User: Fold this.
Amino acid sequence: MNKLEILGLSKQYGDELALDEVSLAVAEGEFVTVLGRSGSGKTTLLRSIAGFIKPTAGNIRVAGRSVLDVPVNKRGIGVVFQNYALFPHLTVRQNVAYGLRLRRIPKHEIRERVEAQLDRVQLAKYADRTPAQLSGGQQQRVAVARALILEPEVMLFDEPFSNLDVRLRESLRNELGQMHDRLGFTALFVTHDQREALSLADRVAVMDQGRLVQFATPQTIYNQPASSAVATMLGRTNLFTGRVAGSNIIEVEGQRLTIETSAPLGAEVSVMVRPHRLRLVSAEGAARGPAGEFHAAGTVRSIEYHGATEAVLVDTDGRELLLERPAEESTERTLDYGTRVDVRIPHSAFQVLESHPKQ
Amino acid sequence: MNRALRIASRAWFPVVVAAIIVFLLAPIAVIVAASFTTSNYLSFPPDGLTLKWYAEVLVDPSWGAAVINSLLLAISSSLIASVVAVPAALVLSRRGIRAADLLSSFLMLPIMVPSVLFVLGVLLGYQLLDSPVPVLGLILALAVLIAPYILRTLLAALEELDPALEEAAMSLGASRLRAWVSVVLPNVLGAYAGGLALAFIIAFDELVVPLFLAGPALSTLPVRIYREVAFDVSPQIAAVSALLVVVTVLISTLAARDGSATRILKEQR
Assistant:
């Protein structure tokens, strides 16, 4: 069952369309991340769902009922804010109890439920501290516990990690994932960080210029991006322009590649290869590679060492190819700026992007 | 931070700090010392030690009346200033208010304009009306003068507050009003108290405004001291000043607990 349904949601600010007919549905217990750059409309989407913004058109359904006319404080949606927005003048216990207090629930019941909730998120020990005395991870748990205790239909996360350093961000991401596995809430998580989006999500909604451009599993988003915009948003990639030259044959830079495609004969298409699918062979190798591989000769432009891997930029006749390989390989064969190399790419590594490259 | 520490560790640093403290505190120390003198005129160092001037001041009903006048003026003007400054701060702290910067600069004007000019303006205004300045006029003038201090401290605290706090409260079920009362208010109350204390002290200590605007029948403490000094220099004045210092220190200590006093000084730079 879908807990959250967004139907043709639009938001206009003056001449600017911040949200352009976005539709998506989140199933019960599902973790959906919304990935987009700043200005992509992802925050507008989240704030519309929470009720802080009134959309211009479209509908929002929570547990099957439209909430467009329901004010923020009656929507039954939990929000975890950037920087968590814990109430600084209240203790952890009082923060978690805040929502229940507003609901005129008997005192003893509030106490029981708060204690149970604090146990569930392992905060019982810190119940009497104020937010300023907590670590980042503990603050996150308070923020989640405070919203979750009201048993919201949907939890919204507004880039909660964006102001944190990389290491803390990773551990909080991990912890949030575990909390979701354990507590099983329905979540919509907005972020501009592609790693966060991919690692937390059951499904990723990619937004660009107010539109939802792809909504699929992280694997599909990464391996079969719907457009070059999505492809580049999910990390560095190599983009080519090709022409359909036959049934499942695309001509790229004069080479006929076997790539599955539904594009019509003669159509110009955009083709992508992720850097880790590129392979280096020494330049003295045969000028023509084995069948089933794209090949190009070039010279090394730069080498970036990343620890487990290294990224090599190869200049082949004026166009640059980015290649990523395990760092062990670099000890077998050292590369320098200007080394002549041959790049090989199996046809199966190429991916046709649906959109026309010039669009 | 490191740089500050490095400067603080220099050999000359304690000397400079000591000099500044002496410079700031010496006049007060002189006045307090002089208040104990046995001679009939202000003298330093004191010729002997006596509490007689304090006794005279405390017994003389005209000093008591001056203190009460000052207190009443300070209380009423800081309340009126609050009525104006608190809502103004609330509105100005909202995002997306057009010309908020301009408006808050405008509201800071009373601090920028020399109070003599301001007071002359008020006097001329009443002259046009062909009326003496009523007590309410005096209170309002004081309120105008001190409102910026309340506005500034409160506005600074409100702007520092994460706007998401209010939204968080609302997403947890609070109405806008409830969110404001239960979350915003408790987090800026300290700053408001600090601003209020500062405003109160300034109204209480103000000389120029009541000197020009109050009729001869209404004498405030600073005015009384001023007149006293103008005619003769009885050690009574030193005793009054010493008492005034004690009261002021007490109030500003209360205000400083929140750090608002330092905040407003920073804003003033």
Summary: The domain at 62-268 of chain B is CATH 1.10.3720.10 (MetI-like fold).
